[in-house]
Design a protein that fits this description.
Strand content: 25-35%
Number of strands: 15
Radius of gyration: 20 Å
Number of helices: 11
Structural class: alpha/beta
Shape: globular
Distance between the termini: 15 Å
Largest sheet: 7 strands, mixed
Length: 333
């Protein structure tokens, strides 16, 4: 089978298509013929050896897939060849076939495309865990979403609205602001590109505060980091929750005196570890996402698809922080 492989640390240009042996389903496993694999920011980091996990090389990036079961292990009874599925893989998704444990599988609903299915689990799974388990977001509260036009950003806008919050979406362009409004954002902020000097940082904090209102934000969802973090934290409300989701703009250093003055919490969000430690709670979240998807309250927004041979281009676009919504690689038709 074909695979898009990382054979040495580096950027997307280092990825090469090569042949690997077809996988075989072991006990408790199925082999999935991959139809689509979505691209997420961890794919940028993992091929550069900058992610929390470093799979042995050669490996294929790609952490969430949709496809059709090709074969099942001898002890597998709940799944059969031909079933349409979606799954998290951690890595290894940019391949024609992959062996996966049955515990990682979810059924792809009829009428939903493989591209949509490959775009659900990571962004919405991360976000529902962040907003409910870490942020304790409640109806009537105010939510600030940074990077609100990316995959997790749009998921946060949609889920924030589904949970009854007032959502302020912060983005880097008017085009992205329009995407956030289409997802349901009540207000938008267009900020400049970092780095910021002291005056620019103060001005951004004032932008955040003006949109947040007198009471500030109950929850701030930050998948961006960098120079955007401190201005956002300055706009948080009393006993607010600041959710640390990712760092494409760099790892920030926050002045902890702000947390004392606002009596607020800074909460890390590591969905992968949560899902591994409490799989039942995670599966309950995913089942809730399927209901919200069915009801039209959320909908993965696939804005661009790439041929399998161009998978590196999709990762390069993600690295440039130029993506709106989800980028998906079509592995096979």
């Amino acid at each position: 089978m074909r695979a898009l492989l990382s054979k040495a640390p580096g950027g997307p240009e280092t990825l090469v298509i090569d042949d690997l042996p077809d996988p075989v389903a072991g006990p408790g496993q199925v082999v999935v013929a991959v139809k689509a694999c979505s691209i997420n920011y961890p794919d940028v980091l993992i091929i550069e050896d900058k992610y929390q996990f470093k799979p042995p090389r050669p490996f294929a990036p790609g952490s969430e897939i949709a496809g059709v079961i090709d074969s099942v292990g001898a002890d597998v009874t709940d799944w059969k060849p031909g079933d349409r599925v979606i799954a998290m893989t951690g890595s290894g998704g940019l391949v024609e076939k992959i062996a996966l444990p049955v515990a990682s599988l979810y059924r792809l609903p009829e009428g939903r495309s493989f591209a949509e299915g490959a775009s659900l689990l990571l962004t919405y799974g991360t976000t529902i865990h962040a907003l409910l388990d870490r942020g304790h977001l409640a109806e009537g509260q105010t939510l600030l979403v940074l990077g609100a036009a990316g995959g997790v950003g749009l998921a946060a806008v949609e889920l924030g609205k589904a949970f009854g919050a007032r959502v302020v979406a912060a983005v880097s362009s008017e085009e992205k602001a329009e995407a956030a409004r289409q997802a349901g954002a009540d207000d938008t902020i267009v900020y400049a590109r970092a780095p910021f000097d002291k005056d620019q940082s103060k001005a951004l904090a004032e932008q955040f505060k003006a949109a947040g209102g007198k009471g500030g934000y109950n929850v701030i969802y930050d998948p961006v980091g960098g120079d955007y973090a401190e201005p956002a934290l300055r706009s948080i409300g009393w006993e607010g929750r600041y959710l640390v989701v990712g760092f494409p703009a760099g790892i920030p250093k926050l002045p902890l005196n702000l947390t004392l003055l606002k009596s607020c919490d800074v909460c890390g969000v590591f969905w992968g570890a949560f899902a591994a430690r409490d799989p039942e709670a995670n599966r309950a979240h995913i089942e809730r996402l399927f209901l919200l998807w069915q009801d039209g309250q959320i909908a993965p927004r696939v804005t661009e698809t790439f041929a399998f041979a161009d998978g590196g281009k999709a990762i390069a676009k993600m690295a440039a922080r130029a993506a709106i919504g989800k980028l998906v690689v079509t592995v096979s038709e």
